[in-house]
Structure formats: structure tokens, C-alpha cells
Amino acid sequence: MEIFLQILANGVMLGGLFAIVAIGLTLIFGIVKVINFAHGEFLMVGMYLTFLLTTGLDLHPYIAAAAVVPALFVLGALTQRFLIQPLLSARDEHVQIFATVGLSTALMNLALLIFGADIANTPVHGVRSQVQLGPVRVLEGQIWILVAAVALVIGLQFFMKRTTLGRAIRATAQNRAAAQLMGINDRLIYVLTFGIGAACVGLGSALIAPLYPASPTVGTYFVLIAFVVVVLGGLGSVAGAFFGAILIGIVDAMSGFYIGSDLREAVVFGIFLVILILKPSGLFSTRLNQSHVSP
Amino acid sequence: MKLTGFLTTAAVSVFLAGGAAAEVRFGALYPFSGQLALLGEESARGAELAVDEINAAGGVQGEEVVLVRGDAVDNNQAIGEARRLISREGVKAILGTYSSSRSIAASQVAELSGIPYFELGAVADEVTGRGLKYLFRTNPTAEHMGQMIVEMIVEKVAPALGKDPSELRIGIIHEDSSYGTSVAGHQERFGKEAGLNIVTVQGYPASTVDMSSLVLDLKSQEVDVVLQTSYQNDSVLFLQQASEAGFEPGAIIGGGGGYSMLPTAEAVGTDVIDGVLDVDFTQYAVDTSYTPGLEEFVAAYEAKYGESPRSGHSLNNYVGAMAVLSAIDKGEGFEPEGIIEAVKAIDIPEGKTAAGYGVKFGENNQNERAKMMGMQWQDGKLVTVYPAEAAVGEMKLGQ
């Protein structure tokens, strides 16, 4: 029983990790309708920024987040403004997706050029210390990641429902043409949303950096599961991504122990396929709309 | 314009070839850019130092050796660069390659052209397993790694833990690409032959971000000795999560990769990695009476590159290149058949090279005397502890 609870706790913590990466991804997808293949590289950039700030200025990684989050917001906003936006009028919207693939490769090789292929270790500042929660043990840093993921979900819901900017973002997502008629600057909304999505993963990167060493390819480790989580939760649903992430985390940990680590990916993707067959729009689907297709 | 350029080049080549008596060209095919650049470059430095030493002593058959670099950034380019070295640069043989997949791709080209290919650093079985006529390998392989790990458990680890080898519960974990899978396969095979009790063999993707369930599984199966074959990310993850889950097996033995690299030790902390064992190419903290020439190699390296060697790759490439070039020096001419005959005559006993192992090509042109060594992390340093003739420290286990 004790082992079961420990695995469950490991699974939830792993889920928190997936969630904090996936939230920004689903936000960008839901609103801007762009599948951002460079999302993992945004994470990687954030982790290297955290590494530089913590080693260069001797900051606690969580304090470094105060600089990393705005930096990633700017990176995201610039990506939308100068890479995606010029392609909005392209004949085929898939061009935008390929542009993000290109950005991903470019960022990865840039990191390779600057930092080399070796790993970079962010000082841990005590967040790797263990916390005993009843019968289970987890890392302090893992708890903070889970707390941050929950806070991010609640904060984003509040922002979207209660603020003028949030309402404008939702309006643009629901019907771009109608939003434009209401006087909303849709291009600005897209730039801001892309920035917010990147800022979310910026927060994630500052929290993850002390737990995992940064390397040019670190983003690819996280991003495949993040895509699974986003589809599972219902494309564009922030809360869905969170619960999808926790579910995948638990399935991953359980199958790794009870079935064997060779098969855990097979189990995770098997369950993913079964859920998609039973509920094709994901667990928490938002209403489908095609308004982004119209000019 | 293009034609003139071509003609000029041709003229210059003819001129060079005409006035040749003074130089012979060899290819150095390594990944010099991209993901594998760091250790590709490190490997190439070993070959360069060997060439410098040979040239200082009068070259091969009186001719100066010129190394022409080819950048094997990926498999396709490895093939393209091998073609270029052979047909445009007119190299007499190719040295390489560090990466097994690049080596397998490029050596096919050399084989078809009938140009000797000397592999000095790639470990996969398939490199020599294909029965090529012109491919020779000087370095130890995945099979040697599995064999050495099992030998070390039987001879040294079991006695240190105060148990009979057959009483130890062995757990094999490995990243699931061809590198991890083939080493784990050899560990299993040699382990069974030696009568070891292997309780579990588990693969996982190298890109994994969590190994806590695997750690719990090993812990609940009461594994005494963990064998891991891994890259850097997963080495760090396993060592950290094992220590955090309070899993303290009698011994952890890594197979090269992440286990031999200083950044891994820095990532997990010296207290966690202390006592962890590793089997890999010869490293630098070793008894130099068993590896004559090692100190001179390090001095030459530091003089040329202004830093200490970053890994054992340069040393192993140096030893391989020295053996091959010295043999060609004793041979007749640079025709492929002449070179092959010369290298087949190599017979260097153990304890006479800077890496310790001897050189003699056996079945499939694999160096049958190639050997890995056992190291242990002690106070933040990787110290050779096995075999006894190379050891500079005692293996410390079971405290």
C-alpha cells in the first residue's frame, strides 16, 4: 500500500510537471490556432536564462522567474508579430506550423552553438530537498510546480472571464470576424496571447530548471507529452490540459512500476488512443469553431 | 570561370602528385559540427597528435602524413565526405569516426572504393560485424564493455560486498536505442555464462523525464547491483532519483556514456556519485606503468591545444592511429593491399600502448586485444580500479 501511494504521489508530481509545460501550449493553440512546435524550445530558452541568472547573479531560481517570465513573454510576442503574423495571409495555414518547426530547429542549434551539447546545471538552492507528506516523500520543488500549475489554471480562468482583455481574447477566439466588428484589434490580441502562452512556459522553465539539467534538446523531452496532454484535455482548454496532465502522469508512473518501464510509453499512448476513440474532442472540449478560417 | 578553377586545381594536384615524394594524405572523418561535435573533435585531436608524432619521427616510409578533415555531421554527410576524401582528396586510408552510425555509413563507401578504413572509436557491434574486407577497428566495443562489467562483478564487486557472485541480485537497466540495447544484451549473455542472477532487464527511452517508478521497482525487487547503460540526462536522473527514494544498492555500474563525464558528477553532486563504478575506454587516472606513453600524450595534448584532454576519446584514437601508422611505415607502399598486409602484421602486446590494451586484428578485423577498464568515482574524480595492473586506487564498496 505504501508503495502504491508513493507511486501515486510520483505520478501526480509528474503530472504537475507536464501541466506547467502544456498550459501555455494549449492557450496558444486555443486562441491563436497555431500549433507551436517551438514550445519545447521556449522551455529550453527559459531554462538556460534561469541557469545564467542563477549562476551569474547568484539568484534563487524562483526569483530569476521575475526576469525569465517577461523575457519569454517578449520572445512569444515577437514570434507572433514577426514570424506568424506575416504568414496569416498565406494560402495555406499549415505554413505557420512549418514556420514554428523551423524556429524550433533554429533555437536548438543556436543553443548548441552558444552552450555546446553538454548539460548546464542550475544551482538547486534547496528545492531538491525532500518533504514527508504522510506516508510519501516528494521533492519541495515538485510541490511548488504543482502549486504553480494550479494557480496558473485558476488565474487564467479568472483573467479570461473577468477582465476586459480576457473577454476580448475569448471573443477573438470564438469569432475573429465578429470581434473585429466590435472594434477589437485582433492582431494585437494574437501577439499578446502568444506572449502570455510563452510567459506560462517561462514560469515553468524557472521552476523546472533546478530539478532538471538544461541541454539544447531538453525541450524535446517534454514537448511530446505536452502535445498528448493538450489533445487529451481538449484543444484549447486550460483546465483540460491540467487534468489531462495529471492523468497521464499517474498512468505513466503506475505503468512504469506495475507493467515495466519498457512498456510505459505504449500504455500511455494506448490510453490516449482509447480516450480519443471514445471522446474524439478530448476530455474537456471547448466548442469547435472555424471562425479563424474566415478573413 | 568554374572550368578554369577546376583546371587550376587539377594542375595543382598533378603538380603536387608529381613532386610528391614528400607527402601522403589520410582522411580524418569525424563529426566536427552538430550534436556530436564536442567528442568528435576530441577524438580527432587524438589522431592529429599521432600524426604529429609520426611526422616528427620522419613520417611513414619517409613521406610526411597530411590529415585531411571530413565533417561527418550526419549519416548522409558522412557518406558524402567519405566520397570526397577518396575521389577528390585522394586519401590512401580513412581514420574515424567516433559515432557508430556514421562509421557504418561511411565505411560502406570506402569498402566499395577499396580504400582501407580504420575505426578508432565507435563501439557498436555492427561496425565490424558486417565482415568488411577494408574495415579495421582498434578500439574496444559494446561486447568488451558487457564482458568487462561482468568480469568486474565476479572478480571484485562480489568479494567486496562479501557475497558469492551467484547470490547477488543484478538489475540491468538501459536506454532503448541500439547502444543501450546491445550493451545490455551482452551484459545479460556474459552474466548468464558467469552464473549471475539477473532479476530484471528494463529499457526506457533516453529522453525520459522521470525514472521514479523504475527506481521503486528495483528497490522492491531488492536489487544489489544495478547496471545502467545510458546517456547523460538519464544517468543524472537515475542517480538523483535513486538517492532521493533512499535506494542504496551495493553497487551501481555505469557503461560509459554519461557515467564518464564530469558534468554528470557536478549535476548529481559528489556525495551522490561517490562510489559509483563505470566501465569505459581508458581514462587518465590510471597506473602509467601499464600505459606507457600516456604522460607524454597528455603533455603533447596540452602543448598543442592549451587545455587538458576532455575525455578518454582522444587517447584511444591516438593509440589506434599510432598502431596503424607505425605499421604502414613498416609496410611497402600505399596501395590498399599493401596497407592491409602491413596492419594485419600488427602484434602489440597488452601493457605496451598508452591505453594499456594491445593491438592485433582478429576475426572480422576487430582488435582482439582491445579492452575496457573499470573506474570508480572517488572524491569527485574518476579513478581506475580494475584490472589490478592498471589500478591506481582501491575499489571502495559496502560502507
Tell me about this structure:
The complex is a heterodimer of chains A (295) and B (399). Chain A is mostly helical. In chain A, 71% of the residues lie in helices and 3% in strands. Chain A is built from eleven helices and two strands, in the order ααααββααααααα. Chain A is globular and about 60 Å long. Chain A starts with a helix and ends in a 17-residue tail after the last helix. Chain B has two domains: 2-140 and 290-368, Response regulator (Rossmann fold, 3-Layer(aba) Sandwich); 143-280 and 374-386, Response regulator (Rossmann fold, 3-Layer(aba) Sandwich). In chain B, helix 5 (126-129) links the parallel strand 4 (117-119) and strand 5. Chain B has helices spanning 2-18, 37-56, 75-87, 100-113, 126-129, 142-160, 178-193, 212-220, 232-244, 262-268, 270-273, 294-305, 313-330, 336-344; strands at 23-30, 64-71, 94-96, 117-119, 135-137, 169-175, 197-204, 225-229, 251-255, 277-280, 373-378, 381-386. In chain B, strands 7-6-8-9-10-11-12 form a seven-stranded mixed sheet. Chain B has a five-stranded parallel sheet with strand order 2-1-3-4-5, with helices on both faces. Chain B is globular. Chain B is built from 14 helices and twelve strands. Chain A binds chain B through residues 3, 6-7, 10, 14, 17, 112, 116-119, 121, 128, 130, 137, 139, 212-213, 215, 217-218, 220-222, 225, 252-257, 260-262, 264-265, and chain B through 34-38, 173, 176, 202-205, 207-214, 216-217, 220, 232-233, 236-237, 240, 244-245, 261, 263-264, 266-267. Chain A: It holds the Pfam family BPD_transp_2. Chain A: It is found in: Cell membrane. Chain A: Its main location: membrane.
